[in-house]
Each structure stands twice: as structure tokens, then as C-alpha cells.
Amino acid sequence: MNRVIKLYELAPSPTSTRYYSPTTWKTRMSLLHKNVDFETVPINFLDIRGDLVIRSGQANITVPAIELPDGTFIYDSFRIAEWLEDNYPDESSLFTGDGKPSRDAHSEHVATGRNYARLIDLGLGASKSEWAVWYDLFFPQLDQQIIGEEQRIYFTSDSRLGPHGYQKLLALDRQELTRRAKMNVQPLVEFLREHPNQYFQGTHPGQVDYIIFGRYAYCRMLDPVLTNEIWNEQGEELSNWIRILSQAYNGHAQHLFDSF
Ligand SMILES: N[C@@H](CCC(=O)N[C@@H](CS)C(=O)NCC(=O)O)C(=O)O
Q1: pLDDT (tens digit per residue) in 193-219
Q2: Any idea where the GST N-terminal domain is (predicted)?
Q3: Which one of 10, 155, 215, 243 is CB 3.0 to 4.6 Å from 146, fit for a cystine?
Q4: Is residue 241 part of a domain?
Q5: What is the CATH number of the domain that holds 109?
Q6: How many separate domains does the chain show?
């Protein structure tokens, strides 16, 4: 029996490593943080509603989802982070930001860090196009990654995107969206400036960092040039943070960024 945890991940094709789901990146980084062996299972949007629903027996499943060696499925990146925190107590905490094992952490410290992470997760970390700029801005690039007739019909449908949603998304003012995306990133630069040589979670990286890095990685996977303009060119504090997290865990993220 395979003893390794499976991470179900969105990808353009079974052989592509262009992992563009921001939420799945959160889990990828938290698995690495907790030193967990895992393998990536690339799937597409139709597989989520088809095969993954059947395999997991969970009608509302989304990615990221992990499958444990005993066949249990856990989904929602935040629920997975909490599960990792509880089940890998000898590894450093995802929520305290002090680099110490979860086992030794005070529960108040974990609770505060967890609440901070949750707030960022529901805010900056969410993709809701009603208010977040990210989905709209990178929609044309994402659209290019949706391959295959059946997949495209589903992805571009009004039932998914609302009445004429596809045409509306492609017609948006990209310059204005870019300006707003940069505004979204400004508080991050400011925060790092106020906490020199630290991470968002604390002196060590944690779930807050992985949530923000997930947003960066989504952009980076879809359009490296635009990403550079929005993220890297806004301040060296943020570009240093990006570099450090890209190189972390044996350069896991960097390796994926360079892989196509
Ligand atoms: N709050 C969830 C959000 C998960 C989510 O929205 N995942 C998207 C991909 S980034 C998804 O599975 N979408 C399925 C679909 O659009 O059909 C989490 O953090 O895991």
C-alpha cells in the first residue's frame, strides 16, 4: 500500500507542473513546513466535480484535498493546516511563527496565530471575484491553461461564470486591475518594512506566509512578467521574502516555477 499522502492539485494537464491554484499552494507549503512526504496528483476542474467527488464521497469537495494512506480525504486548506498542526506536533508550529515545535507551544499563542492566519485566509487569501482583483486580472492567462473541448465548455459556461461572464471577464480594463492589484500588495510591503528580516507569521514562516505566498505563486504560474511588476518591483522587502520562500524546502517552489 502507498504510505504517502496524496495532494490533489489543479494543473492544465496530467504532465504539467504549472500548478496555478492559490489555495493548493497554501497546503503545498504547509506540508513542506511540517516535513510531510507527499505526492502531487494533478487533476482538472471536471475531475474535481467528477472523480474526486466519487473517490472521496464528499459532494462539496474542492482542492486542495489530501488523501491519507488509509483513504481518508481532508479538504479545505485551512482545515488541512489545523490537521497538520495537531498531527505533527514535533515539527515547528504553523501558527506561532517562532520556529518551535507545536508540542511546546502555549495554546494562547497558537490561538492568536491561528486567528491571524484565518483572517488573512478569508481576506487577501480568498479569490472571490466580487471583491478580489486577482481572479479578474489573471483570467485571460488562466483561460489559456484550460485545455480540451469538454473542459473549456465547462470553464467558460454561464452556469460557472454568470450571464455572459466569460465575455465580461475578458473585456475588463487590465490597466485598472493591475493598479488595484498593486494596491493590494502595498500593505504587505509596509508590514515587512515594519518587521525587518521577519516573516508575516513571526520570526519564522507560518500559515500566514503560505497563504500570501499562494497568491504570489498563482500569479507567478500564470504570468511571470506581470507578477514581477505587481509583486517584486514594489519593494525589496517583499522581493526578498519571495526569494526566501521560493528557495525554502530545497527550493521546492523555485524548482516548480522554473519547470516550464
Ligand atoms: N476555502 C477553500 C477554497 C478552495 C477553492 O475554492 N478551491 C478551488 C480552486 S483554487 C476549487 O476547488 N474550485 C473548484 C471549482 O471551481 O469547480 C480552501 O482554502 O481550500
Answers
A1: 999 999 999 999 999 999 999 999 999
A2: 11-92
A3: 155
A4: yes
A5: 3.40.30.10
A6: 1
